[in-house]
Batch of 2 targets.
Target 1
Amino acid sequence: MRVRDHIALSTAAAALLYPFVGKRAALAWGASILIDVDHYLWFVANERRLDPVAALQFFNAAHPPPASNVRWLHSPVALAGAAVAAAKRRALLPAALGMAAHVAVDIYHDSRMKRAQAAALVRDGYRCQECGAKDETVTAHTRSQPVLLPSYKVGNFVALCGPCHAAAHQLDTRRHPRRLTRVAGSRA
Ligand SMILES: [Zn+2]
Ligand SMILES: [Zn+2]
């Protein structure tokens, strides 16, 4: 899920919880957002650049390298580590819960996206809607999304072949060079 969607959901949840748990809501909020830095750190380490806009454009490509999808802060090992730390120091429990909530939201989001994309491919007969190609490179591209919070409507997705998909992302980047359309985790 996009970083901005996570920020919106986490902020709403923290605001709701604040009257009951006080500052602990802020700790959970921070952890649920900072968990996404693993992506940026991957970019910095591999591309040797610090530019956050370049990082978002990198992850916005139609086919970022699969290695870039390794998310160590999202891994079961990191979550288990957070749980162990919280068991030792109760003050850290909200941070562990914030991380777990973030990963749970990601899992829900990915499954809804996959279902909508599969339905779009069936609707389009697995044929690229740009050039008509019908081969194994055809995948569902996210044509549009609301500014805030995702939509899983099938109409938001379209079947495109590999080259047309890459071209669609390039066009999107050129039209909106600073628009932070998509970040990894919700790609395609
Ligand atoms: Zn095509
Ligand atoms: Zn796409």
Target 2
Amino acid sequence: MGHFQKLIVHMVNGDSSTAAAMTSIPPEGISRSVSVEPTASAELEEARSHYISMEVARVEPESEIITSFYLRRTDGQPLHPWEQGQFLPIRVTIPGQNKPTVRTYTISTACNPDHYRLSIRRGEGDALVSQFLHADAKPGFKLEAMAPHGRFVLGKSDRPVVLVSGGVGITPMVAMAEHIVAESKRKGKFRPVYFVHGTQNRRVHAFREHIRALAADHPQFKVHISYSRP
Ligand SMILES: Cc1cc2nc3c(=O)[nH]c(=O)nc-3n(C[C@H](O)[C@H](O)[C@H](O)COP(=O)(O)OP(=O)(O)OC[C@H]3O[C@@H](n4cnc5c(N)ncnc54)[C@H](O)[C@@H]3O)c2cc1C
């Protein structure tokens, strides 16, 4: 990419010998006065440390205590790509708080340019952000988010994978499962998945139908659910 950028810069500057010598441009051959657009990874690094404005596009209950919030950028730009399992640092302005409140939530859907989905358990007692979002974050509600972070991600492999979770810990596993099913279908080669999940009972069990639908779409996707208080 660096070589290609230098080639373009030389051509734009009218250096006619460049095209002929395109395989031998020395690294120092580029003029320091020419500004080169930042690379995609430089933009991503920048986005990682800055909050951008997001808007709730859709709200979907997943169980009696877990609700999904679909977020889009307010400037209409596509989202930066993320890896399945990463989380989103968010900043929410809550009336009565003297400064915006920061929390992190795992993105519960596979990478796409359109939206993040955060699936948030309504906390008990004085749980500030989760209770506020459940009560007040309707479509159109604005908050801020950094680019996704985190190293707990699905490795690139075709080996069988076991996804184990409890309660709201299902969120990264849903993103990973969605990705594996989509990639397996695209490649025509099905990576075996064992999806193991524990929760209290059906009333609080999030993504029950969604995981069933993913399993129905993938011949080697086994689901095991265990309830502690059926
Ligand atoms: C990497 C990562 C990913 C995460 N992903 C998800 C996810 O996908 N979904 C999800 O639902 N959560 C997720 N979480 C948890 C989330 O970040 C929040 O911690 C959670 O929502 C609670 O925040 P809150 O503001 O609602 O509650 P808080 O205000 O932080 O309160 C938490 C608990 O402490 C109690 N409490 C508050 N103040 C006091 C006090 N002064 N004295 C005693 N007790 C008090 C509250 O009653 C509550 O029970 C994730 C966390 C991390 C670190």
